[in-house]
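Hi both,

Apologies for the delay on this - the queue was longer than expected. I finally got the zinc ion-bound model through. Below you'll find the protein sequence and the ligand SMILES exactly as submitted, and right after that the structure tokens for the full complex including the ligand.
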Amino acid sequence: MPGLTHIGIAFLLQPLVPSIPIWALLIATELLDIICIVLMIFGIERMPTKEKAPIAPYSHGLFMAVVWTVSATFLTFMISNNLYMTLIIGGFVFSHWCLDFIASPMTYAYPNDTGKPILFQNSRKIGLGLWSSKIAVIIGEYIVTLIGVLIYIVWLIL
Ligand SMILES: [Zn+2]
């Protein structure tokens, strides 16, 4: 999380990498959240709530984000045998952690949110905390996503 921005970035950047299908960009940019959702189903991780801090070291810790990025990069190369596509997909996967690092802790929506752990749950948490500001959330989540989707639609039509 934040989810919307990642989707917006995939749409926004699609015209720059037209040979890579949008579904691949969307899965790549949201991979860490997809892993988080699976782990939440098994009760291993949880989103921040109004009262509780998040638990998401396996999907969103820096160490595991690198592990998932390397795994996704390797898998993409095994499937596609295309170095260009591999590097782009790897970049999109890791972009998720970078954006979450900028946004977290997202105290505007979740007062008890923390930054992202460097290793696992009890390690140091880091983040720039941009989503503590309402105006940053509105611009970063909604306006970026809206512009991304609009640019994508115009690119599809032209
Ligand atoms: Zn996330």
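Main takeaway for now: The mean pLDDT is 94.

I'll put the files on the shared drive as well.

H.
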